[in-house]
Amino acid sequence: MHIHWFPGHMAKAQRMISAQLKLIDVVIELLDARIPISSANPIISELVGAKPKVVALNKSDLAEPARTAEWIQHFRGMGFTTVTLDAASGKGSKELVNKVEQEASEKIAKLAAKGIKGRPVRAMILGIPNVGKSSLINRLLGTATAKTGDRPGVTRGQQWLKVGKNLELLDTPGVLWPKMDDQEVAFKLAVTGAIKDDIYDMEKVILKLLGILRENYSDRLRERYKLTQDQLPEDIVELLELIGSKRGCLRSGGAVDYEKARRIILTDFRSNKLGQFTLDTPDQLEIKESDLTPTTERHF
């Protein structure tokens, strides 16, 4: 299941971000609360350097609350200002704005001391595709100004957006890194929708997902697909067939339509119909200090 993706607009976005960072007071890195490490692009950390940063765990409504609490403690323990969000409903957006303004207070005070008063805080929102940047911006603005979509790659350009009197946001396209050597990370990005469905082997991804669900969340599978205690075969292909049959994914002659069955399972997983999931935990992945640890020096 080798997944590699770095289309041309990603490289362009990276160059645009680098050019604009000198205008920015605070960076907002938007992560998927279900996969906080897998959705943390190391390129973003390299680009941002010592700029003040707020880590925002979005889609927290889809993640397991206990795991999210662990991640909050983890990131805060590393020195990051951290908030949780549900950009779709707006929950946590006001706290995010407050935290961003707090992070920029030192810079704004320095400007005021030089006679530059009343300048809004300038923030940049960064994150991988489909992590919810546009939905968050729309909530902050109270209007559908930024385009949204249920697929990665909707936002292609950059735009400054005014939020209240004290904050200006620079929206940017989602950026993936050029090469994903860790196929576990690639799997998590694929199954949560960060990677377009047409560029990876969905059969292998769904079979892997079903294996995880069978091993760790068998009760949810039984409840969602109305399986009995005995209807949970160890063979994952047989399990896919059973779910397909239960959901009426049948071709003429009674054969299971595997593609349709896979789509149903993936949609159920992404839409919370199988419950809340967190695929990353702090003790699962080795976290590189160079990628995530903030420096004590602040560059403005």
TrEMBL record:
It is found in: Cytoplasm. GO terms for molecular function: GTP binding; GTPase activity; RNA binding. Keywords: Cytoplasm, GTP-binding, Hydrolase, Nucleotide-binding, RNA-binding. GO terms for biological process: translation. GTP binds at N58, K59, S60, D61, N130, V131, G132, K133, S134, S135, G174. Pfam families: MMR_HSR1 (PF01926). InterPro entries: G_CP_dom (IPR030378), GTP-bd (IPR006073), GTP-bd_ortho_bundle_sf (IPR023179), GTP-bd_ribosome_bgen (IPR019991), GTPase_MTG1 (IPR016478), P-loop_NTPase (IPR027417). Its main location: cytoplasm. It comes from the Bacteria. GO terms for cellular component: cytoplasm. Residues 13-178 form the CP-type G domain. NCBIfam families: GTPase_YlqF. Required for a late step of 50S ribosomal subunit assembly. Has GTPase activity. Belongs to the TRAFAC class YlqF/YawG GTPase family. MTG1 subfamily. This is Ribosome biogenesis GTPase A. It comes from Sporomusa malonica.
